Amino acid sequence: MLESTHQTSELKRKAAIILILGVILTPCLTFGQGDVSSTLVKETYTEEDIPRLVEELHSEDPQVRYKASYRLNGMGGPGINALIQVASEEPDTIARKEAVRGLYSRAVICLKTPIDSALVAVLITALRDSCTGVRIEAASNLKFRATPSRWGTSQEYSAVEPLIDVLLHDDNGEARIEAAEALGAIRDERALPPLIDAMTNDQRDGVRSSAAYALGNIPDNRSVYALIHTVLNDEYYGARRGAAVSLGKLRDRRAVEPLISALLDSEGWVRMVAAEALGNIGDSCAVDALIMSALEDDFYSVVIDAAEALGKIGDNRAVAPLCKVVVDFKRTFLFSEARCAAAKQLGKFGDPAAVEPLAQALAREEPKKKCCHAMALVQIGEPAVPALAKLLIPQDDEYNMFTRREAAFALGDIGDTAAVEPLIEALDDEDFDVLNRVAEALGKIGDCRAIGPIVYELESNRWLINRTRWFMIEALAEIGEPSVTALLGLLSHDDYYIRGEVADALGEIGDRRAVEPLIEALKDKNGFVAANAYRALQGFCEPADAQEAREENWGYRDWRRWWRKKERNSP
Predict the structure, then answer these.
(1) 34-93 tens-digit pLDDT
(2) How far apart are CA 289 and CA 297, in angstroms?
(3) Structural contact between residues 238 and 267, judged by C-beta atoms closer than 8 angstroms
(4) Cα(248)–Cα(121) distance, integer angstroms
(5) Are the beta carbons of 308 and 337 closer than 8 angstroms?
(6) Between helices 237-250 and 224-233, what is the axis angle to 10°?
(7) How buried is 305 (Cβ within 10 angstroms: 0-12 exposed, 13-18 middle, 19+ buried)?
(8) CA torsion, points 185, 190, 192, 193, in degrees to nearest 10?
(9) What is the CATH number of the domain that holds 554?
(10) Total number of domains constituting the chain
């Protein structure tokens, strides 16, 4: 009775929580842009609804206005024409702004001319609107439309000059920011001088920053010196960061020394993108600075980008410093990301000198990050086998099981036969996931020495879970023909699961010696075993025989008859 009362109260509590969450989240789900709101508008609207929806664009409720513009957009041609008309002719600034915003969505992006031409013309006109909000929405709309698949025709490039006018003369900073971003997305060379001017002289920080980012999208090195000046001298870190990003995109070697100086910037985000930019340029002159400054940075993101930059440059001088980063466990827990980044780059270098540091890091790293070090050791290959083999030995460590799992996985991926004996010894590990990885590794290597130990574990260890048994039997299947005799012996095991998976494995191998025992397995009292044996036998058939077996549901005698016939006809 008490338990029933408790369950009832618990259900009521959960229902109350769901109700409260519904009240809180409903406004979030009903007001916004993009695909999220598409789940709200499931009704079908016709041209008869257009006047009402246009009227709703004047509502004081922003949710009502947004839904109306979204629904008009979703109607396609007629609704979009209505939005264009409102954006062009409506005296109400609120309605004009909502109409211009409503002209952007997936539906409009997919439109072709002639509506598309009219749409661009409306947006260009809206750039000169007396309402600041309309100008901002128009520039933003043009920015989002500026994709490689969309831009390139005269009607769309006609927006460049009006956007330049907004960038240089609009009294609203937000409009100038949107114009700079739109010009960067369009990538027209006419925008180069105005963007340089805005980056250098605009009083608003955000405009200078947006202009700096935009210049990186225009493949013209005339902006390099202006970007260098900004990255070194602008008082706003966002502008310095944007300039560094753009210099990395332009890949001009004149930017190397200024970017090296930017590695000492007071803002970590600037130092981070400066390191990334140096990696994109790929000049070996930056190696020493990346090693001495960026890899020693207290901001872990800077270290990550420095490691990746050194990997892109590919200078072997980076190996020892990257090894130092990999075994640095004194910094904050977030530094694990930096250790992972360094490990990935060491894997690319493939230098055997990195094996010991990577093995140490694999042993000490937090569980979720151990795979980075393991994969780096896999890339180094055969020289890493002895170190990985040592890591298979259980240690008195809370997370050592994760280390053993990753070590076994890495040894399997390397595939060197020198790992067979250590892996065989690891078959007595007490962790099932470690055993799974060990068996998988032995299967990948495919050495016959593993057959006996695996069979012994299957026959003697009653505590093995079925998943581990599957990995072991699958390993025997991957070893192939040499394991057939051992598998045939296991086909009479007293555990039905082993018998069933062995039947499946024999079918995978496809050795004719298995046919007679598999036919006998059709009489197994356990349906799982019989079904697997049936499926395995189908693999030995010609396509026509396999189809007949399925259609006529062959039984034991049918398979016997088929096999006698096949034996008579075989050479």
Answers:
(1) 443 443 444 677 888 889 998 999 888 989 988 888 888 788 788 888 888 888 888 888
(2) 11
(3) no
(4) 35
(5) no
(6) 150
(7) buried
(8) -140
(9) 1.25.10.10
(10) 1
